Amino acid sequence: MKERTIGFYEIVTAVDGKATRTRPMDWDGALADVSRVPVASRTVETDAQLVGTIATYDMQDHLLLHRVKDGGEWMSVMNWDTGDLRELEQSAHEGYLDTSVVCFLPFGNIVGIMQGARSAPSQKGLQAWLNGIRLFPGTQLEVRPVVAYAEYERLKAASGASSVEVKVMANKMGALREGSRQGGLARTLRTAVDA
Fold first, then answer.
1. Best label site of 54, 120, 142, 159, fewest CB within 10 Å?
2. How much of the chain, in percent, has pLDDT values that exceed 70?
3. DSSP labels for 113-171?
């Protein structure tokens, strides 16, 4: 089974350059609204083209955030029987995508992001997309890691730290699978392990 990494982030509001926590936002309603608009209204142009799609799994909506590969990126296909390579060519009405799955947890404004590839959208891409489509008009959103401020300051000061990883061991994962634990985090972790 391929190992999957899920990063957890908090969505906060940014006013005058200061990020502050806000009341829980209606993510279910926002995702339902996004699912009903044409693709042009779900597309944002930044340093990359980002497109959002809504996918429903186990009666919960998730955001599939896609980065459209640039036409100049080198992409080829190999025939495993013959070893022949051929270049992929994009048509004018199609594009190749790098996709991240974004799960909006039912508490606070916390999201889990699982990137499909290194070049798939990260939390910065999610932030650009949320603000670009003006999901909550008049509100500037910031997506920041779920780490307490003191820990964040220590990590910022550490010269060798480039990422933080939290592992859930198999015996702890089993506890989360029990029927008594039905929270959003438990469901997300179960889904990630089953994938």
1. 159
2. 70
3. EEESSTTS--HHHHHHHHHHTTSSTT--EEEEES--HHHHHHHHH-SS---------HH
- pLDDT, tens digit (0-9, with 9 covering 90-100), for 29-84: 999 999 999 999 999 998 899 999 999 988 889 999 999 887 667 677 788 888 88
Q: Is 112 helix (H, G, I), strand (E, B) or coil?
A: strand
- Give the per-residue SS3 of 53-102: EEEEECCEEEEEEEEECCCCCCCEEECCCCCCEEECCCCCCCCCEEEEEE
Question: Average model confidence (pLDDT) for the chain?
Answer: 79
Structure tokens at 146: 């779920």
Q: What is the DSSP letter of 25?
A: P
Q: Fill in the DSSP letter of residue 32.
A: H
Q: How far apart are CA 127 and CA 124, in angstroms?
A: 5
The continuous run of DSSP H or E covering 44 comes out as: strand 43-45
Confidence check: pLDDT of 175 > 50: no
pTM of the model: 0.70
